[in-house]
Amino acid sequence: MHTRYFDLRDTKGQQKIIEDQISAAADILRQGGLVAIPTETVYGLGANALDETAVHKIFEAKGRPQDNPLIIHVPGPQWLPRYCEDVPPLAYTLARKFWPGPLTMILKRKKVVPDATTAGLDTVGVRCPDHQVTLAIIREAGVPIAAPSANTSGRPSCTCAADCLEDMDGKIDAVVDGGPCQVGVESTIVDLTCDPPRLLRPGGMPLEALEEVVGPLTVDKAVTEPLKDGEQPKAPGMKYRHYAPKAPVTVVTGPAEASARTIEQLAKPGDGVICFDEFADRFDRQTVECLGPSRDKRIQAQRVFDALRAFDSKDVQQIYAQCPDSQGLGLAIGNRLKKAAGFKTVAADQKKVVIGITGGTGSGKTSALNAIRDLGGVVIDCDAVYHEMLNQDAELRHAIEVKFHGVFNSDGSLNRKKLGELVFENKERMAQLNEVIYQFLVPEVQRRARDGNLTAIDAINLIESGVGELCDRTVAVTAPAELRVRRIMARDGIDERYARMRVSAQKSDEFYRSKCDYELSNTADTPEAFRETARVFFERLIGELREEKDKAAQ
Q1: Structure pTM?
Q2: Which of 124, 269, 306, 545 is deepest in the core (most CB within 10 A)?
Q3: What is the reported pLDDT for 251?
Q4: Which residues of the chain have pLDDT under 50?
């Protein structure tokens, strides 16, 4: 088969050429052919999703297992009722917010979508790609396009037309070159047929962005571990070893400095290393592919498949890869690396550190906690833990009811107004309530803090509750009162009088300063600037603590 090549990268002022090539690609798809098409995520191998024979050609060209369902691509939410049953309002909400873009929604399918496309499932994945060339091809074709990544099954996905030709030349009818992919990892897949919705595959749409709209999502176990034999995947990328170069891959997790140090210990001369840019010079006896700066996940997402694919032309026996943390795009990048490794991972050798963080509103605690996340840490929000326990912990609820009879409604929910009336104007009763809360909260926080190598505990009452005793060090985040007032006014949209009342009602900086091991003062002009200051502070503190622990263990 001769594979045609349509170059649509730079056709400024050549509208007729653009239209002719789009029409030619659309005609191939209508006639049952295969076309590699560009999207913002990766290149897709497209076929008419309603043509069972054409869909089978995708599986043949890729060597793809038949039980691995495909995603259909549409030009907008107006096409959803054509191919999906009982479309929930949430689907349209997400489409308005995130389409076109790297989000795939799993919905109930109509019978017009054949079994070959859905792998026999009664659901179908649907997305609207953010690439004008491909959207124009879909509209011109007038049919939804089934399009898994345009690579040989199991190999790293294609992020440029040259990759598609490397894998598919002579196997498919055409390749449309729309330039390099801007996102670089596949779409995020969320299942809307269950409650709460479930994340099936992390991708170019960060989980945090979805949860701002949807609320908490359940994360499918296939995101962090392989499915077992006999388990059918509900979405692409859930079951089989994917994205793998020829040489075996080992993923090293943990903070960047620690994972680089661990790879130095593991990698032999001549091995391959995928690392963040700033560590490349440590591996002069290995073959190196750079993933991007350790703090720039956008670039890492664009490079991850290129880095994996590059090793197929290099003579290495083993590849070690640094892994970003799971915040934002890091969840998707880490998932792709781990799938390339068949989930073979090594945790960087590091001592566990727990840091307590406290301070008044407007001081900059959020930026400080984000700095901990930047360093690969996990944050435990004591206030959130308390409210979660209030809904789920029967013993805590009973203890509160014993002390403050009648503060729970008939449906079991807490009557916050009634409880507030009892305790807010009565210091003795407030102390009684706190005593009950702390009795249950501290053991729960201690249990959660056992996981991970770096944990920050966020608590306004860090010292009084006893949670501070769980920490290696405690840090007070402070700021001048005038700055706090201005920040609260800007953040919460309140007037100066109310902002000053909120600041004056809280403990003074001197209280936090006198009770904590360290003070982190925030006089920065922007949250971003303080976040960077805090990152440097915590990086140094964490290093000192781990060095202390290493010496103590010797």
Answers
A1: 0.65
A2: 124
A3: 95
A4: none
